[in-house]
Amino acid sequence: MSEHVEPPFDRPDKDFNTLVGWTWVGTYGGYYLQCDQLSAFEHGFFTRLWHGREPGGLVGYVSSGVSVHRLKQVHSGRVLAASAAHNDPWPEADGLVSDAGGQSLWVAGADCTPVLIADPDSGSVAACHAGWRGVAAGILTTAISQLEASGCRREQLLVALGPAVSGPNYQVERSTSEQLGPIDDLQAAGALLDDPQEGRDRLDIRRAAHWQLLQFGLRTEQISICPLCTVAEPELFHSWRRDQVKAVQWSGIVSQNADTPR
Length: 262
Description:
With 262 residues, the protein is of the alpha+beta class. It has one domain: CNF1/YfiH-like putative cysteine hydrolases (4-Layer Sandwich), CATH 3.60.140.10. It is built from 7 helices and 16 strands. The chain has helices at 55-62, 132-136, 139-149, 174-177, 183-188, 205-215, 240-243, and strands spanning 2-4, 22-27, 30-35, 43-45, 67-69, 79-81, 95-97, 103-109, 113-118, 125-130, 158-161, 171-173, 192-194, 200-203, 223-225, 249-254. The chain has a 6-stranded mixed sheet. Strands 4-16-8-5 form a 4-stranded mixed sheet. A 3-stranded antiparallel sheet has the order 1-2-3, with no helix packed on it. A hairpin with a 5-residue loop joins strand 13 (192-194) and strand 14 (200-203). It is globular. 46% of the residues are buried. Mean pLDDT is 92; it is low at 1-6.
């Protein structure tokens, strides 16, 4: 059982409880974050407080009686149908698109953006692990194209960009920035910030993903961006850039298609 409650964070310098467009969900196991725009879908962005529990154990806090689908993430632009990622060994890819009902799709991150996509009309969903390599490879547009191939309409999709490293905390080479799009356009979109070191930028990968989605025909009102930074919030999130430790938090969403796989 779960209910929408205030999370137990007592930090006068941080206002975790009033994230506009996002809600903490309390369960008997802890708290996870939901995007209000995806409230019609069972989903969750989990924190480091759930460390050690993988999708097979987390799914029960989000839904019941659904199958679990996950990947061996390799920082690629590859997107698979969920039915191709149902058993260990998990296939190498960084995105999943539902192809039946009752599928829970999971991605992990520790600075890269967990992205959940939902179609309210069909109930189809997608989940992507979107670091700079994935965004440069077009992983989000690939996932959307696969949803469209199954009958979804681009203008109906809802996208949640979860907790990830923020621009001020992510320094990259200019050669990296150039792979994401025209520098002037990315700067105008707030995806690239100035860096004091020559030949480097501060990259907000969520803003870069947002810009790319707009270029692909989505509207601003279809996209929600979580304001929490994984580097800046050590109480809540693992961060590779901050700690140099291989640890992740999981995010998942459940499809609502009519036919449930057995």
